[in-house]
From TrEMBL, chain A:
Domain STAS as annotated: residue spans: 21-110
Family: Belongs to the anti-sigma-factor antagonist family.
InterPro entries in UniProt: Anti-sigma_ant, STAS_dom, STAS_dom_sf
This protein's name: Anti-sigma factor antagonist
Record GO terms (molecular function): anti-sigma factor antagonist activity
Automatic annotation (TrEMBL), chain B:
Record protein name field: Serine/threonine-protein kinase RsbW
Domain Histidine kinase/HSP90-like ATPase positions: 5-125
Keywords associated with the record: Kinase, Serine/threonine-protein kinase, Transferase
UniProt cross-references to Pfam families, sorted A to Z: HATPase_c_2
Residue intervals passing through the bilayer: none
InterPro entries the record matches: Anti-sigma-factor_SerPK (IPR050267), HATPase_C_sf (IPR036890), HATPase_dom (IPR003594)
Source taxon at top rank: Bacteria
GO molecular function per UniProt: protein serine/threonine kinase activity
Lineage per the UniProt record: Bacteria, Pseudomonadati, Pseudomonadota, Alphaproteobacteria, Rhodobacterales
Keyword Kinase part of the UniProt annotation: yes
Length: 114, 130
């Protein structure tokens, strides 16, 4: 389901691989990313450029991933379209996740922070 | 629609295409959220005695609004989301569950629930917000 790419600074870019991240696929998405975290990934960018919609289950999966990483690393999001961005705001998730325009901006910010 | 999680997204997309024109922009987005959350809540949590019983959704175009009527599947225990929803401000920022019902109340312009001839019905009304 997910697509991944790793930068030369070990930042993992994850694309959910679905147009709608909802109750039907949020658990599978979370489980796949948790496997990568368990295997050692700790700097993650979730790239939503191909996601047009997410519901509360999709948001729940993201908070689950953030908790899984904990203080061992960081998780940021990028590529949010207007609707996904609005969903983050309605659920107050814009206060929880750092968001960037695209994966290049997210990777640059994470590199500068480390 | 079948009472199955895989049926939710296709149903919501079909309904969205049906109301496109009557609702647009942010109202269509709120419609998407509410229908996705309401149907997921029914499929995942409705305590029905017959899982094969379908979920019926009706769209009603009115003068200045559009409403959807979602009928509980046959045998489901009555569940009024207005009594159960938690305000989004009160939910732990890192909670993985519990936002769906609050989203419906925040995004629909009016929420009603109660008995109808076809069974218990959740009625969600949407207006274009200027």
């Amino acid at each position: 389901m997910i697509f991944t790419d790793t930068t030369d600074t070990d930042i993992l870019i994850v694309r959910p691989g679905v147009e709608r991240l909802t109750a039907v696929n949020a658990k599978a998405f979370k489980d796949e990313v948790i496997t990568l975290i368990t295997e050692g990934a700790s700097q993650l960018v979730i790239d939503f450029k191909d996601v047009s919609f997410l519901d509360s289950s999709g948001l729940g999966a993201l908070t689950g991933l953030l908790k899984k990483i904990g203080h061992r690393g960081d998780l940021v999001v990028c590529g949010l379209n207007d609707d996904v961005q609005q969903m983050f705001k309605i659920c107050r998730m814009d206060r929880v996740f750092k968001s960037y325009s695209d994966s290049a901006a997210a990777v640059q910010a994470m590199n500068e922070a480390s | 629609m079948p009472n199955q999680i895989e049926a939710i997204d296709p149903m919501v997309l079909t309904l969205k295409s049906h109301v496109d024109g009557a609702l647009s922009g942010e109202a269509l987005f709120r419609f998407d959220i509410c229908l996705s959350e309401a149907l997921a809540n029914l499929v995942l949590h409705a305590e029905t005695t017959d899982k094969s019983a379908p979920i019926t959704v009706k769209i009603r175009h009115e003068a200045e609004s559009l409403s959807t009527e979602i009928f509980d599947p046959k045998g489901a225990v009555a569940f009024d989301i207005r009594d159960k929803a938690r305000a989004l401000d009160e939910i732990d920022a890192l909670a993985e569950n519990g936002r769906g019902l609050g989203l419906i109340l925040e995004c629909a312009d009016q929420v009603d629930y109660g008995p109808a001839p076809e069974g218990n019905r959740l009625k969600l009304t949407f207006k274009a917000r200027g």
